[in-house]
Amino acid sequence: MTPARLTEIVSRFSSARILVVGDIMLDEFIWGKVSRISPEAPVPVVEVVREEYFPGGAANVARNLAEFTKGAAVLGAIGEDLHAERLKTLLREEGVQLDALIQDAAFSTIVKTRIIARQQHVVRIDRERRLTLTAQQSARALARLEALLPQLDAIVIEDYGKGLLTQDFATQLCTLANRAGKILAVDPNPHNPLRWERVTVIKPNRVEAFASAGVLPSEPIDPPTADSALVAVGQTLSQRWPFDQLLITLGEQGMILFQKDTAPYHAPTRALKVFDVSGAGDTVIALYTLALCAGATPPEAAEIANHASGVVVGKLGTATCTPAELLASFDS
């Protein structure tokens, strides 16, 4: 991709209007230092230095989009608690639209707390309770989505398996998106196996792709296009899910793109250093979808998403990539 072509695509990002649908949560990071072992048990004592909060899950996808466009919105469910208010404040500060958000006292806002000392992840604490939308709540959510559809270019579905996405809800969502002719991107969860109908792109990671195909994982082979097990998984999933594109993220190997009647396309990793992979998949689906909205071809979108994820894994915590960082990554 030439610099002129990249600039042309990125210049269109700000006009994109994208709704992220899925499980939203609050990411809490507790940073500290360890200088001794507890006398009570053989565990490190972490002296807290600072605490930080970020939108997580589907909210992190919206946050990644908000770096490039003011047209990012999120549809998800949260409780009526202090964590929910903190999450809403963070999203508003990022410029994410919250009109489609579902808030109910019956829900408990999901919080993931990571304790990090000397740049080492010590432990993660999850506070969550699986939610289930009532028929009325589901109908209200779909009505909000339908009302937003004329303004949207794309919908991103982010399934973390926390209960929001059921088969009926997913089917109706796909029907509405396809009827309106919108780009539809899905980040699936193999622990919540759903049928996806007429999807533009599905983006699992390597482990999720093998699990979704019902195949035991195997050791990666370089280059990925010569990895017969991986290629076979791509073929299996293309028969199971009616999609236009399958983008499988491969960690240090980058990502591989499958399209019908086209040879697999491999984009090697662009990460110069890796500190934290938290949220890297969110960045990939956000930037890939954004690039498609801006007129990029699927291989061009894969390269853009690949560079963006290379930027975020070089940061600590749930991070995003800015337009300047994206362009600088291509320059380097």
Would you spell out the secondary-structure blueprint of this structure?
Layout lengths: L2 H9 L6 E5 L1 E14 L6 E14 H9 L5 E4 L1 E2 L3 H13 L7 E2 L6 E8 L2 E8 L7 H14 L5 E5 L8 H13 L3 E5 L11 E4 L3 H7 L15 H13 L2 E7 L5 E5 L2 E6 L12 H14 L4 H15 L10 H9 L1
Parallel strand pairs: 1-4, 1-9, 2-7, 5-6, 9-10, 10-11, 11-12
Antiparallel strand pairs: 2-3, 7-8, 12-13, 13-14
How does this structure look, described?
With 332 residues, this protein is α/β, with parallel strands linked by helices. The protein has a single domain (3-25, 57-106, 130-331), classed as UDP-N-acetylmuramoyl-L-alanine:D-glutamate ligase, CATH 3.40.1190.20. The protein is built from ten helices and 14 strands. It has helices at 3-11, 58-66, 82-94, 135-148, 167-179, 206-212, 228-240, 280-293, 298-312, 323-331; strands spanning 18-22, 24-37, 44-57, 72-75, 77-78, 102-103, 110-117, 120-127, 154-158, 183-187, 199-202, 243-249, 255-259, 262-267. Strand 9, helix 5 and strand 10 form a beta-alpha-beta unit. Helix 1 runs antiparallel to helix 10, helix 4 (135-148) runs parallel beside helix 5 (167-179) and helix 9 packs across helix 10 (323-331). The two termini are 14 Å apart. 44% of the residues are buried.
The average pLDDT score comes to 92
Q: CATH first level: which class? A: Alpha Beta
Helix count, per DSSP? Answer: 10
How helix-rich are the residues, as a percent range?
25-40%
Please identify, by name, the CATH architecture. 3-Layer(aba) Sandwich
Give the distance, in angstroms, between the N- and C-terminal Cα atoms: 14 Å
